[in-house]
Each structure stands twice: as structure tokens, then as C-alpha cells.
Amino acid sequence: MITIFSMIATLLLAITIPTKKEVKELPLKYIHNKFYLEVQSNDSTNLLLLVDTGCHTSMFDKSLLETHGYKPVLRDFNEVDIVGVGNGRMSSNFALNLRMLLSDSVNTKIQFPQYLLVKPNCKGGSVYFTTKNRTINNKKHGTVVGIVGADFFMRYEAVISYKDRTISLLI
After folding, report:
1. How far apart are the first and last CA of the chain?
2. In the beta sheet, which residues pair with residue 124?
3. 146-to-10, 14, 54, 117, 124 alpha-carbon distances in Å
4. How many C-beta atoms surround the C-beta of residue 44 within 10 A?
5. Closest by alpha carbon to 44, among 68, 11, 19, 13?
6. Mean pLDDT, residues 121-140 taken together
7. What residues contact 31, with CB distance under 8 A and at least 6 apart?
8. Which of 108, 125, 137, 115 lies closest to 39 in space, CA to CA?
9. Those residues with Cβ within 8 angstroms of residue 75's Cβ, 6 or more apart along the chain or in another chain
10. For the segment 49-102, what is each residue's pLDDT rounded down to a tens digit?
11. How far apart are CA 98 and CA 43, in angstroms?
């Protein structure tokens, strides 16, 4: 009986003790009047994520992720049409557990527990993954592979300073 109580107490204590987090201040890239967070891919390529606080869920281009060494895991195979983004619809699937390395760090990863995986050649939103952003998808700036949405900012309690072109994350 005492063993059960001590196990429960240990579990409760582990749940209630906050883990130590640190604030990471990262530079934002400002390209063509938009802000981007730079990350490093599995194949060590610099990638860009559009900062869009009005986008509810983070989104990534399926073909570009796969090109850079990521293997997206679908939550299910039901397609989701995203309506109300720009002038079109985007066909996508929910995917799970994407981790990316911050470009200024050796070992700090950011995580997207659930995100939308947009199919190639879909147009919509403030980013056309496969057409409009090709103008900045080059060696000078990096490749835009997705949109960092409100889910990311809430998860990391982000503070964005547009004036200083930085984002602070509680990691």
C-alpha cells in the first residue's frame, strides 16, 4: 500500500515540477516585406519558415520537406481542404511530430506535434509554396518550406520584435 502511494506521489511531483526552460532569441530574416525564421534541415540546408501569426496551424510543403530529408508521418489519410486562404483551396493532410534544428544552434530543435502537410502545386494563403516563393528559393536566402502559425507561437510562448527583427522562444 505504501509503495502505491509513493509511486503516485512521485508521479504527481514529476508532473507539477516545472522543467527548466530557457529563452532563445533568434534573428528573423526580412525578405520581400515578409519575416522568416531560419532552420536547418536534416541534410544541413538552410530552410525558411514564413512567420504568419494569423495562420491557425503551421503548414509545410510535402515535396520540399521530402527533398530535404524529412519523412512526414500522416495522422490519417483523410484529406483536408483548407478554404478561406487567399483565393483558393489547399489540399492537405494532418501530419505528426516534425522536428527542425534552429539554424543558430547545434542541438536546439523546435517541434511541430501536429501540422498541415500541403500537397505540391497547391495555391493558397499568403504563400504559394511552389510558385510565388520560388523567387526567393535560392542559395542567397534559402528555401521556403512552410508557414509557422499560431500553434507554434503559443507552444513556445513566442515574443516577436518586428523592429529588432527577432523572435524570442521559451524552449
Report:
1. 39
2. none
3. 41, 35, 14, 9, 12
4. 9
5. 68
6. 50
7. 48, 136, 141
8. 108
9. 93, 94, 95, 96, 114
10. 889 888 888 888 887 788 888 888 887 767 766 665 555 666 777 888 888 888
11. 15
- Residue 39 pairs in a beta bridge with 47, 102
Contacts of 141 (CB under 8 A, 6+ apart): 29, 31, 36, 48
Q: Which residue has the cell 516577436?
A: 160
Q: How far apart are CA 52 and CA 71, in angstroms?
A: 24
pLDDT at position 160 is 93
Segment 11-64, tens digit of pLDDT: 544 555 556 778 888 889 998 888 999 888 777 778 888 898 888 888 888 877
Global confidence as pTM: 0.74
For residue 119 the three cell numbers come to 500537397
